Amino acid sequence: MSNFFNTKIEFLKGVGPMRAELLQKELQIFTYGDLIQHYPFRYLDRTQFYKVSELDESMPYVQVRGRIRGKEVIGEGRKQRLAATLVDENGDQLELVWFKGVKWMQKSLKNHTDYIVFGKPTEFNGKFSMAHPELEELAEEKQTTAFLQPVYHTTEKLKAHRIDSKVIGKMMEMLLKVAVPNIQETLSPELIDTYRLTDKRSALINIHFPETVEKYNAAKFRLKFEELFYIQLRLFRQKVVRKADLKGQVFNQVPTLTEFYKNHLTFDLTNAQKRVVKEIYGDLTAGKQMNRLLQGDVGSGKTIVAFITMLIAADNGAQSVLMAPTEILADQHYVGLKKFADSLGINLGKLTGSTKARERKVLHEQLRSGDMKMIVGTHALLEDVVQFQNLGLCIVDEQHRFGVEQRSKLWRKNPRVIPHVLVMTATPIPRTLAMTLYGDLDVSVIDELPAGRKEIVTVHRFDSHRLRVFQFVRDQIKLGRQVYIVYPLIEESEQMENYKDLMDGYESVKRAFPEYEVSMVHGKMKPQDKDYEMQRFVKNETQIMVATTVIEVGVNVPNASVMIIESAERFGLSQLHQLRGRVGRGAEQSYCILMTGYKLSKDSKTRLETMVRTNNGFEIADIDLKLRGPGDLMGTQQSGVLDLLISDLAKDAPILQEARAAAQRVLHVDPQLEQPQNHNLRRHIQSLSANTVNWSRIS
């Protein structure tokens, strides 16, 4: 797009410095380009006129044509209001009321004049009224006024300074008058032809002020397609460049791995695990840097795949790092892998925030000398003092919990050649989100649980069923099992007094089960106290663990077979699924019990029904995306890619598929976008600053 769209917003007629400052602070609108891409989030249907007799209180906003027949000011002082009577062509009456701006309205409202009024109808004693309606005097030539009126996001602060949706609409009208000649086409003729897209100019006009519903739909499709196309184009180009330019160490020796398979692996890998190992091995022997995402549901066996990958690196003289977001998870990985490493004579270390200074000194020396081939840890691994002889592999677990800068700090630990990268997540990512967040990564999925694992039985119970639930807990403990009871809060708070609180819950559980030992774990405890309580539960010294979501990630107690989630309506779907995954780790049948009160919102009911119906993490993630949106799901601060202006990943999967296929085709034929038909694409990308994440932006 031309430099026109980089013009500062204050230079637009009707804006000026004061309004510009507010728009910048409140809506991040700095330039003409930012404003023209501040799309309406809904439209008021001004295409239909109603008679007073057709009105219904359930209608949102309606417009009525009629003549003002009388107006009067009622009441005094602050209770003063203006009431006017509008009579439609059938002679039916609609009362119009204003509680604010009474004097101004009384002056400007003309008696015996035809108006279009637009507002929310309310009924009282069989009569309809409309408070603070929008008014438009009905001139003879405007008898056929009909359109979709845009509604723009604004804020309370902007409204206080009289910048409401209508004022933003006026700014948009002013901008479009001067902008239209400067709008250049940003897609190739081939794409426009193939997907029957409207041109960019028409799309921008009709997304703000649709002439017809058909033109609005065409504009919306065009802008969504373009946005998703440029995201996919950027990701594919990154992938192509990385595979062409970034060399990777070749790991083709596997003697220790062969020994591990033959003599130390005490169980068979699932077919899914074998397939994933094969995909990873293909990357490690290709001479290019591996950049792979490993997705697998809770308990699917990602950690052993990670260890096998670390063994391949060790067999080829390289060091490996496995970084986890919490100490509990790092400890679990370390304990799980240490027995394998010891049996193979491999030096495996652990570095977390609570590692003592003298232990750190030894770890640092062994990493620098190359004596230590593998290390598991937390953010402590990112410290500058941690240096390697030859870091060849970085594995990041629950990678969305780390920022981009944190992860790249790890990659830079080998100045000679970028290490191979494997990022793992047990949070199933919906396909549309994976394509958008991780489109530049190769994706492997472990979609099979280890043999002998039984599906967790999930039920929803109301608080009135508590005695039956507690009896079930006793029966399970008598069978030798253990139980988690999870609460959403640590202490009671006024706003959330209806939700079970941890301290209160802990006391109730101790009273209900005096014959059993109870542990308690929450995020405000000191690490050593938390570890002590966790270890008591792991050793079966306590039968019941009362906890907050601190156990969501990383606790592995195969003997625990019951997960009770109190106030389950307080949790998101992916969180409920993660918590459920804490049980079902052994061969016994496991259960998840979702406890709630009777008062549930529509979304809460959907979440609970989904949990009861399915154990499939990917299906759950798709529903979660529809309920919460991508930003909440992933934390967009770590991605930037999700800076979407008009698309909705929960609803626009078909458009994303089309856009992805189109981007792939374009780059397959013309990787550098040098051919004449891709001139628009190349020019548009070049016109954007290098750090602009969303390539569909105007500037």
Automatic annotation (TrEMBL):
EC class name: isomerase
Reactions this protein catalyses: ATP + H2O = ADP + phosphate + H(+); Couples ATP hydrolysis with the unwinding of duplex DNA by translocating in the 3'-5' direction
Ranges annotated as spanning the membrane: none
Example GO molecular function: hydrolase activity
Domain Helicase C-terminal stretches: 471-631
Source domain of life: Bacteria
Keywords assigned by UniProt, alphabetized: ATP-binding, DNA damage, DNA recombination, DNA repair, DNA-binding, Helicase, Hydrolase, Isomerase, Nucleotide-binding
Helicase ATP-binding domain span: 283-446
Pfam families xrefs: DEAD, Helicase_C, RecG_dom3_C, RecG_wedge
CDD domains on file: DEXHc_RecG, RecG_wedge_OBF
Gene3D superfamilies: Nucleic acid-binding proteins, P-loop containing nucleotide triphosphate hydrolases
Its EC number(s): 5.6.2.4
Function, in words: Plays a critical role in recombination and DNA repair. Helps process Holliday junction intermediates to mature products by catalyzing branch migration. Has replication fork regression activity, unwinds stalled or blocked replication forks to make a HJ that can be resolved. Has a DNA unwinding activity characteristic of a DNA helicase with 3'-5' polarity.
Similarity field: Belongs to the helicase family. RecG subfamily.
UniProt-recorded name of the protein: ATP-dependent DNA helicase RecG
Organism: Pontibacter locisalis
Lineage, opening ranks: Bacteria, Pseudomonadati, Bacteroidota, Cytophagia, Cytophagales
Gene coding for it: recG
